Amino acid sequence: MSENIQETIVELINQASLYGKDSVRVQHLRHVQELILRKDPSLLDNFLEEVLGFQTDKSPEVRKTIISFIEEACQHDPEVIVKVIDSLRLLLYDDNVLVQKRLIVSMITIYRLTLKWLSKSRLVDENVRSMWESMVNMKIHIIAMLDSDNDGLRTVAIKFIEMLALVLSRRTQDSIVPASNEQDFSLNLLQDDHRILRRNKLEQEGKDVMEKLLEFTLSQHLSSVNLIAAMGAIANIARQRPDYMSRVVQTFEALQVNLPPTLVDSQVSSVRKIIKLKLLSLLKHPASFDFQPQITTLLTDLGATQAEVLKHLPKVPTESKRKITLSNSEINTKKSKMTTDDPSIFDKDDSNSSITGKGISTGGVHGSMMSSTSTNSSSSHPQHQTAIDITAADLVGKLSIGNVVDLVLVSMLLLPEKMPASFQATYTPIAAAGTPAQIEHLARLLGAQLTAAGHGKGYELMKSQQQVKPKIEDDIEEGNSIASITGVGRDDSFPSSSMDIDSKSSLPSTSGNESSEIPTTSAGITTISTIPSVQQKKMKPFKLADAIKPIEYDEMQRMSTDSFYRILHAEDVCETAGVGHVRKKTMTSLVCLSERSFRD
């Protein structure tokens, strides 16, 4: 039986090698794929090289068939990846866009299989290391295709990044994974001591690609096809990785009011319907409990009825309700106890900051940088503070009736004489107008638009933080180098950043009210204010750009002219010193720089 199959395979490969109709040759290669991989897999090693020889065929359909063969071969035996990695890399850089798209679709499966195989394999040789390096380079190249001019390539690149965000992250108890993907790889399956794969590095890569995908979703140059694919990807990631739920909800919130201007009216209506469907699917997720106010408000703006929203609300288990009740009672007990011990604490907080319904402090710069958390989950699920959150918190107090009326009157001057058909088709009446929840939602919508336009308190604050961060890192490096030169040991003068709470509590504390004013970080770890002065004083490195001012053009011309005349009158000195040729070159350069004539 095996000999007959071998003879058939040889005959089919010979017929496929002959020039004829592409459809006939593709049919022969598919027959070879079925015989090798489904009837007698032991023949894979014997005919792998012969089949891979078609990777340079002139026909794109033949090359796409070879990609399909490689994908199925890797699924059957992951060790084949080492042998076919060069072929995959060659086909990735193919001139035909259809071949590239087919290769990227196959790479979604092959990359996942590679991680799963490497996580279980303990024997790593040079061939495996070389294969993984090639795989990483291919991954970087595919991610870069998000900026491609071809919509089809961008769409499959989105699917590939979706796979990366899922496999380069951890599953949680709330993860809703489809049955078909139940056996897929995740970082939970990776050991810490792997010789090639580093869990922390891979996890950071997953966060980076997810952030890149979210930024891509909010781009203003997307087509409707790319936008729909990106929305489906981030919604699927949020369902399978609830840790990203907060960022995904914020992205949909910003997207609703900042749709790409390239979309036509019919596409805008279609995109809004898809946003509604994705938000309803997220609302079903148990991890969306903390984000229900935001999601329900968005759904109301998108035209969802109250019945639809109630139908998709997740059912909270009795145990969860009991935990929430207990946690609220514990918080109230602790708060009342702290008030009894020192009533001035809450009076001082109330005088310095005002807290909105979402827990975002708007009192001063320090208050605006506090993490926004929901009331029920402030201790267990801190949300990521973004520029939109900070700007929205700043706008809530400014959206008074008078200010809103003034904004409406000013904007009426810019309205068209006739209502656009697209607005009439997508407009939905505002539910519960004027309520605190609706004001907060309006502030977030304005915050999203201001942030997208590069304005707002949050945008300026985040921009300043990004500019200050490199300077702080330079100061820290400079301080460490000075400490090493002077012989000051870090363990002697600087408290370790990894010191636990117990060791900090053993330090001598201040008396009176000073002990109650010890600042706490966002992670809940108490920091001691009595830090040695050596740590507080940082050596700032000298930067010439900070010490000088730019010279105006007229001043530069005047200085060039003065320099020319000084060098002109120093002929005798230059000849005596033997630098006459240098003098001539310098004078020539100054004449070229200056706009005035030196003939006189």
What does this structure look like?
The protein is an all-alpha fold and 600 residues long. Among the domains are: 77-242, Leucine-rich Repeat Variant (Alpha Horseshoe); 360-376 and 383-413 and 425-486 and 533-548, no CATH class; 550-593. It is 64% helix and 0% strand. The chain is built from 29 helices and no strands. α9 (199-217) crosses α10 (224-240) and α18 packs across α22 (457-486). The longest helix has 30 residues, at 457-486. It is extended, with a radius of gyration of 33 Å.
Which key terms come to mind for this protein?
0% strand; mainly alpha; 600 residues; Leucine-rich Repeat Variant
How are the elements arranged and paired?
Layout: H1 2-17, H2 22-39, H3 44-52, H4 60-76, H5 81-92, H6 97-120, H7 126-144, H8 151-167, H9 199-217, H10 224-240, H11 245-257, H12 265-284, H13 292-301, H14 306-312, H15 318-341, H16 344-352, H17 364-368, H18 387-396, H19 401-412, H20 421-426, H21 436-452, H22 457-486, H23 490-493, H24 501-505, H25 533-536, H26 544-547, H27 553-568, H28 571-577, H29 580-593
Helix pairs in contact: 1-2, 2-4, 4-5, 4-6, 5-6, 5-7, 6-8, 8-9, 8-10, 9-10, 10-12, 11-12, 11-21, 12-13, 18-21, 18-22, 27-29
Summarize the structure.
It is built from 29 helices and no strands. With 600 residues, the chain is mostly helical.
